[in-house]
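Sequence only, no structure available. Ideas?
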Amino acid sequence: MSAIEWLLESDDASIRYRTLVELMGANKNNEELQKLKKEIEESVSVKSLIGKMHLDGYWLQKNQQSGKVLGQGVEYGSFATTHFCLSYLAEMGMDRSNSYVELAANRYLNLQKEDGDWWEHLSCLYAYNIRTFILLGYRDDTRVKRAIGLMINTARKDGGYLCDLHEKESQKSKKSCVRGSVKALLAFSEMPEYWENERCLQLVEYFLNRHGIYKNNNHDKFVNKDMTNQSFPIIWRTNTWEVLYALGKMGYGGDSRLERAWDVIASTKDSFGKVHLDWTPTQCPWKIGERGDPNEWLTFYTMLAEKYRK
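Reply:
I predicted one. Tokens follow.
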């Protein structure tokens, strides 16, 4: 069975829906797709995740080392607190039309600071949130616009992003964080109106100059170990496919500097075109498959990245 047939026959309504709409270009207003969208809301994954939500609209997680319970505020734990759970629901195809999503999203957005930040100017948090809330249907919300303004107006010499936590570690000029920079790249990829913005173009060059996934001064070495593993869902770690998906969506997939990165992503596929899962967080409440097995979500995103390359 080919990879596309495998995705279309998935037991996961979210996979079937997103494959039809994003990979195959089906009209999401089609009656059958509208029925499928409703199936998503009734799916085991969605019901299980919403079932773990506090009645007031947040998800809690106890830190195994400190014993501290996180999630009611903006400080987050390992992949099970509020901003992660909202992202997972967005990936599944949920949006603000669902009353539980609306409750949790509005509550979390209201925790935002005046400058558009949530916590320590973590780009892997506020840029991640921007993408999540756009997918959930909050693109025109004033609070999301504030976060976008923060991302647009945060400049670094090398074109990437860094957070207050790392900036404070040393008085020396620090390199940007590739993980946070990837989350900003993903956020920009959802906003075509900013693709010609100077800040977006600087970030694109930050990745193109390192040939997508390599060290800036050595294109024979991956920028970090994340690039050697295929992981899902999207968290603060990063992936080769995330970089290529975002750059491809913005029209840079055919840039010659990315050829080796495309070879890397091609090497992750088996003879049927399926991508195996190397890593998923054990603490994640959204169970997307077992490590070592062919994974529908990774296969979907790899195929979507390749679609945008053309």
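DSSP finds 14 helices and six strands in the chain.
Hope that gets you unstuck.
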